[in-house]
Design brief:
By secondary structure, the chain is of the alpha+beta class. It has helices at residues 27-30, 49-55, 68-82, 88-91, 97-112, 119-134, 186-213, 223-241, 253-268, and strands at 4-8, 23-25, 32-39, 42-44, 65-67, 137-139, 148-154, 157-163, 179-185, 219-221.
Length: 269
C-alpha cells in the first residue's frame, strides 16, 4: 500500500527565512516538499488540472508544497485519537460520505441556532458531539478553504474521508477530487505510514549532509540544532512504531451517542 508520497525539495531550492544578512535555514524549513496521500491510486491533496493550467505550473508538480513536518505532526496528533476505535453505534452515524456530510451539517445547524439554546445545553451537546470527530481529522488550515480529511477507525478497519469542494472566483475547481473515500486495515495503514516516515528520515539525512558540505554564503546554518531536530524526528518515529505516543483518553461513547442523537433530532425538527 502506498500511503504518503513526497518529493523533497533540494536545500538550494528552498528560500531561506529572513532577509539581507539575517537569512537562515532550519530543520523544519529543510523538510519543504511536495506531498500527498496515495490510497491505491486515490491521490489528495492534489490540484485540479484546470487550476494547474491557470497557474501555468508543471502538471507533474500539481501537489501542495509545504514543510513535510506539518503533515507528520498532524498525523501523529490524529493517531492519538484514531488508535481508539469508534464503536459500531457511533460509527453508524458516519459510515458513508453522505452520512458524514449530513452530520457535519447538523453541527453547523446547531451552531446557527445556538442563540435560542441554553448555553449549558449548547456546550454540553455541541462540544461532545464535535470533539470526537474533529479529533480524528487532519488540520489542512494552511490550504485554501481548509479541506476536510477524517480518519475514523471502526474495529480493525480505518476509513478515510476527504472533502474539498472549493472553486476559485472563476468557478474553477481547486482540487482534483472534491470528495473521496478509502478504507484499509488499520495495522497495514500504520505499517505503511511508518515506512514512509522512515524513508523521509533517510532523505533528510542526505539533505542535511549535502547542506553541510555545500554551505551557502550569507545564510546562517545552526548545525547542532539541525542535527538535534533530525534526531528528535527519528525518535518520534520510534515512539509511533512502538506505540509510545501519549494517546488520548477513551471518551464516554454513551454520552457522545446521546448528544449525536440530540443534535440530529434538532435538525429534523
Amino acid at each position: 500500500m502506498s500511503l504518503i508520497r513526497y518529493k523533497l525539495k533540494e536545500w538550494k531550492d528552498i528560500v531561506p527565512w529572513g532577509d539581507g544578512q539575517n537569512q537562515f535555514l532550519h530543520w523544519f524549513g529543510l523538510t519543504y516538499s511536495y506531498y500527498w496521500f496515495d490510497f491505491q491510486g486515490v491521490e489528495f491533496p492534489k490540484y485540479s488540472k484546470e487550476i494547474v493550467s491557470k497557474w501555468h505550473e508543471h502538471p507533474e508538480l500539481g501537489f501542495i508544497d509545504y514543510p513535510f513536518m506539518r503533515i507528520f505532526e498532524d498525523l501523529c496528533e490524529g493517531i492519538r485519537f484514531v488508535e481508539d476505535p469508534v464503536p459500531d453505534e457511533v460509527f453508524q452515524q458516519v459510515n458513508s460520505l453522505k452520512k458524514l456530510e449530513a452530520y457535519i451539517q447538523s453541527l453547523k445547524d446547531w451552531v446557527a441556532g445556538s442563540e435560542e439554546q441554553n448555553n449549558d445545553l449548547f456546550y454540553e451537546a455541541y462540544e461532545v458531539a464535535r470533539e470526537w470527530l474533529y479529533g480524528r481529522s487532519l488540520d489542512f488550515g494552511y490550504l485554501v478553504d481548509s479541506p476536510k480529511c477524517f480518519l475514523i477507525r471502526n474495529g480493525n478497519e480505518l476509513y478515510v474521508y476527504w472533502i474539498a469542494a472549493y472553486r476559485d472566483e472563476q468557478g474553477i475547481p481547486f482540487w482534483d477530487k472534491p470528495k473521496a473515500v478509502f478504507s484499509c486495515d488499520y495495522q497495514e495503514f500504520m505499517t505503511s505510514l511508518i515506512k514512509s516516515f522512515k524513508a523521509f528520515a533517510a532523505d533528510m539525512r542526505q539533505q542535511i549532509s549535502d547542506l553541510f558540505e555545500n554551505k551557502p554564503e550569507h545564510v546562517h546554518i545552526d548545525r547542532e540544532q539541525i542535527l538535534a531536530d533530525q534526531i528528535h524526528y527519528e525518535e518520534r518515529i520510534t515512539e509511533l512504531e512502538n506505540k509510545r505516543l501519549f494517546y488520548a483518553d477513551s471518551p464516554d461513547w454513551n454520552s457522545i451517542l446521546k448528544q449525536i442523537r440530540a443534535i440530529s433530532r434538532n435538525r429534523s425538527e
